[in-house]
Amino acid sequence: MAQPRVVYAVVARQQTPLAEATLEGAQPHTTRTILSKLGETARGAELMDFGHSYHYFIDGVFTYMCILDGESAAAGPSRTLGTAFIEDMRAAFVQAIGHETGEQAQAFELTNSFGPVIRACMKQHNSAKDSLHVVRSTINDVRERMIDSIGMVVERGEKMESLLDKTEVLQGSALNFQQSSTRLRREMYWRKVKMYIAAGLVVSVLVIIIVAWGCDGFGKNSRC
To answer: Does the pLDDT value for residue 78 go beyond 80?
Structure first.
């Protein structure tokens, strides 16, 4: 959706336009037709038309009105831009022209003198709106980057959790290996003990046999 911008503005005495300005490239509007729609008692109200929003403020006999395009009048950016512009245009008119001069001026008599002021105010507020749009776009971009960063952190968290699980498995395997190694060492130890005992028995038997052979036995006829 296009961002709102002020494309037309007018200062009128009741339904008599005193000064107006149109944004370059915008289509001119029928001022008297628009002013006739506003009535006499409305203050700070808004009217809707196809593709435009009408913002106006009636201060006594004077009417300050601007037309915005791009967004509906019910939208927040359009409402804020229209209200701020009308306040600045009204303050500039009171300071530069004054109510007394405005009450005596004829239709469009003040366009040459006050029209450039209105146009400058339009460009200023539209530029401020564009800056706000840039800021909003930057904020949205930062928000998207934060969301991506959070997603990466979550993904890293899942990977870290998987790594911790693998670490626990490795620790369990190391513990099993240590226990198996302990059992193996014990088995090897007892196997060596049994081998030493068997070797001792064999040596003892051989000694006895050798002694018996040298002594011709262990009976009465033994020489030992």
So the answer is: no
